[in-house]
Amino acid sequence: MVSSGDGEVRRVDADGQTEPMAGGGEKPSPKAALVYNPIKVDAASLRSTVQRLSQQAGWQEPLFYETTIDDLGAEVTRQALQAGADAVLVAGGDGTVRAVTEAMSGTGIPLTIVPSGTGNLLARNLLLPLTDSEAMIRATFDGDRLAVDVGFAAIRRQDGTSEERAFVVMGGMGLDAAMIANTNGDLKKRVGWIAYVDGAARSLATAKPFRIAYQIPERRLHSARVQSILIANCGSLPAGLELIPEASVADGELDVVIFQPKNALGWVLVWRRVAWDNSFLRRFRAGRRVLSLRTKDNSVLYSRGDGIDIATQDPQPVQLDGDEFGQAVRMRCRIVPGGLVTMIPKNHDTSRL
């Protein structure tokens, strides 16, 4: 299509000749694309709902793309964008959302998250309706836009090769990544995120601390022996657990959590911090007063910045948004403020984000 000198939109045919478009030069209606993991969703029902709501909104026939084992969603999302999609919907687990986000970051094209899968932690952190898929699909056509941050992790292997991948929830090196690698896939399909408890038990049995050097931009270099280091864009976990109560998906910063328990008691303190202090006491004024009087311990350390550079001598497992990415000797993370435009239901409360 081209625009003539008088501002009228015209269609160009195969020979390069132009003709006015039907309807008096109206612009073509927009088009949505749905990227979904067929294992995680009721594909027929989902496609039907997207098709119906697209039609009601006056949009074109939507495009549909399935993910595969070889393509978790990034490549088909690029295909959707090349096909002219004006909006993309994603339905699947956290890994599918991560892959689709990687392809959409910086494009300005809005993404709608249709909650499904084991965790959908980004949807949880955005306080989206987790059981009303139609409400989220409808938000594609009549909702509000919300720009959220996207993290990127440049991962370097021991052989010198490297790759940079996106994450929207959190990445990590050490025990958390080992836990994910040790989680039984079939058990995860049956019981969801609870399967990670089994993975944690397997990993803790052989967990050993390792030394890292890490630096947040414009701050001094640190060295520590840790069990795990997390780099988070979001702070909430399933079951109402708050790993980082102050984390915001739209503050332009990454939150860093270092776990360095020295013994079994240290792990008890880690659990107390996450499950009791962060997830319960902080909700109440009296609880916050108790926390202000409590002696600090070093089992869990928190920091924040617009990036972090982590190096270790021995390769350690790495995870991004719950997917394992092998082992690495260095991970350099950065944040892209507002890198992803998301669609949320109209008048959705964003004051707590």
Q: How many individual helices?
A: 10
Number of strands: 17
Using the alpha-carbon principal axes, give the shape. Answer: globular
Radius of gyration over all CA atoms, rounded = 23 Å
Q: Termini distance?
A: 41 Å
Task: Describe the protein.
With 353 residues, the chain is α+β, with helices and mostly antiparallel strands. It folds into 2 domains: 31-142, Probable inorganic polyphosphate/atp-NAD kinase, domain 1 (Rossmann fold); 151-337, Tumour Suppressor Smad4. It is 27% helix and 33% strand. It contains 10 helices and 17 strands. It has helices spanning 43-56, 74-82, 94-104, 121-125, 133-142, 175-181, 185-191, 195-204, 264-278, 285-293, and strands at 2-3, 9-12, 18-20, 32-36, 63-66, 87-92, 111-115, 144-156, 162-167, 170-174, 210-215, 222-226, 228-232, 254-259, 300-305, 307-320, 323-344. Strands 8, 9, 10, 11, 12, 13, 14, 15, 16 and 17 form a 10-stranded antiparallel sheet that branches. A 4-stranded parallel sheet has the order 5-4-6-7, with helices on both faces. The chain has a 3-stranded antiparallel sheet with strand order 1-2-3, with no helix packed on it. Helix 1 (43-56) packs parallel to helix 5 (133-142), helix 2 (74-82) crosses helix 3 (94-104) and helix 6 crosses helix 8. It is globular. The two termini are 41 Å apart. The relative contact order is 0.15. The model is unreliable at 1-14, 18-25 and 193-201 (pLDDT under 50). Its cofactor is Mg(2+). Pfam families: DAGK_cat (PF00781), YegS_C (PF19279).
